[in-house]
Amino acid sequence: MTYFPYFRGRMYDLLALQELCENDQLGSQIVPIIEPVRDSKELQKTVTTFIEHRQQFSIVANPQVSVYGLNDTKLFPLPDMHKLSFFYPSAILAADFSSDFLKKNVEQESLLIVNNFELLKVYKNTSVLKSVDKVLIPEVARMHELVKNKAVSLTDPLTFAHHVEDYANLVDEYFEPVSWYEQVDDYVGFGDYSMVGHVYFDKGMPARAIAIHLIYVTEDGSLRVHHFVSDSNEKMSGQKDKFFEALNKMVIWVHENINGLNLTPALETLLEYSKQDKFPGLGMVKKLSIMHHMQLMQRLLERPLE
What we know:
By secondary structure, this protein is an alpha/beta fold. The protein is 29% helix and 14% strand. The protein has helices spanning 11-22, 41-52, 117-122, 127-131, 141-147, 239-257, 265-272, 282-301, and strands at residues 6-7, 33-34, 58-59, 90-92, 111-113, 134-137, 151-155, 172-176, 190-192, 211-217, 223-229.
């Protein structure tokens, strides 16, 4: 089973992917998909790192968020990927879609990302659907019926909270079913938006609370996510204090509940901050949380099934 984590190409997403790749912590069953949002050095470096390590990956040809796709002249152009056997050409089925986006060589597999049933129905009998290798869709029966055994489930299990402090009322929630490693109903892969979620904001908004999200696998094989939220959330100030409030809750909970596969190098690095007086910044927390999730998924996907 192949896992297709979907990222929007923000800086700390990319830094996480770079470090994971450099340390061989993605592997052959994880194919990161990046929808670019910035013409950035980090994006260029991430793609270069993937190529150097022959890591399977995909870059969306027609990004639908932010302004990356509006300017053909790039300050940080990406390397030519058309001849790479481990590159997956991909595109979103949207108003600007072109079949040229999915051109591939004989060694490549192409990915079509679809969120709109009506648009998918228009393409039902076209060469696009006949020639594409996999179609990433939400778990919607009528969409699955149109793409049949090319379907990859792309879901966002993380509950979207309008206010960060609302996660304090969730605490612990379901993330992926126990069948993630052997998808049923003719799905040929699965993907998600990790602990970032599918909602894209061009710029981060200040929040009164800080939340740290930890994805973990349970004894029955299902994935869950635990939320650790700061307490002193009456004012916007005091980010450092809020971070340590959330982190100290995590330290206690992890000590009581996490071991084995769940105790990843990234999680151990995050926990080490509790022994210091340094606030690493929310970007670093996000980076380590993403790395933990990917390290966990690599361990699970490469583990022999009993």
